[in-house]
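Researcher: Watch the backbone:
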Amino acid sequence: MPKTARNQNQNATEKNPKRKHCKLEAPSLKLKVVRDEMKKFGYEDLEVWKRAVDFAVKVIELVETIDTGRKHYRLLEQIEASSTSVSMNLAEGKGRFSQKEFTHYCYIARGSLYETVTLLEIFKRKGWISEEEFSLLKSEGVEIASMIKGLINSLYKS
């Protein structure tokens, strides 16, 4: 029997039950690749965005190793949300129509970064992460904060 989108979706659901609401459909448009390069969004050229994505991935990987019991689940979700919010706000701001709006989203991104580092401090004090894990992520956070400040300053000057 030929594989249809429905059969593929059923097979994917059997492998991963969380995907039962996903529907796979044949793509209606083919992607054009120009000279072996895909087109980019403007934020993908921002070095600070790249660093923020890497930072979020490291935080999420660390959180996945923490075993605190169910009563602290909300804190784990919050640090995942705040760490990913840094790069998401930089991307959203880059997509706005004015430098003033972009600057505003940079400030929001910086606030999310501060929130993430604060949660890391709490996790360290609770003994959920080591001093070394905290120090490494905090130093990355300080570098990203400096990069965001530099971006904000450059937006004010232009």
